[in-house]
Amino acid sequence: MTSSFDADRQQLQQLAIEYANAIDAREWDRLDRVFTPDAWIDYTAMGGIAGSYPEVKAWLPRSLRFFKSYMHFVGNFHCEIDGDRARGQVACFNPMVVPGLLPGLPRTVAFGVWYEDDYRRTAEGWRIARRGERKCYALNEPLWMKLGVWFYRRFGSRAA
């Protein structure tokens, strides 16, 4: 027999997997089953944006179109459940294929990131109400990506 805690933990782990699979499949509407409508997402640690779920959902296909392929492999899931709220951390290994300096010679970069989440139980089940990122490492990161992160952090939305 599965305890309520075990069932909740399993649902929260499945939420992390659903997020990874939705992003990797580029099926953006699947994220509606992952985030609360009022969720706050902060991807700035990896050079992305911070904003409301609708803002980030609209930004994702625009920003990820530059990558030929990518994969989010999640694990080391940890959560602390308190009634209808929970906090958690998920490790993510994220290799991504980017254009190389020479046409036809792509480059694979790999990132290690910790997702730091706040969860909320809703009528539809557990959802992420807040997601932040903490960068662990980058392997084979091209200079243009580093410059893009620096530029965004320095000038943000003023550059648009």
TrEMBL record:
What are the coiled-coil residue ranges? Answer: none
Annotated InterPro entries: NTF2-like_dom_sf, SnoaL-like
Q: Which Pfam families match?
A: SnoaL_4 (PF13577)
Instruction: Show the Gene3D superfamilies listed in the entry.
Output: 3.10.450.50
**Residue limits of the SnoaL-like domain?**
8-131
Matches recorded under CDD domains: NTF2_like
What protein name applies here? SnoaL-like domain-containing protein
Organism whose genome encodes this protein: Sterolibacterium denitrificans
Lineage at the top is:
Bacteria, Pseudomonadati, Pseudomonadota, Betaproteobacteria, Nitrosomonadales
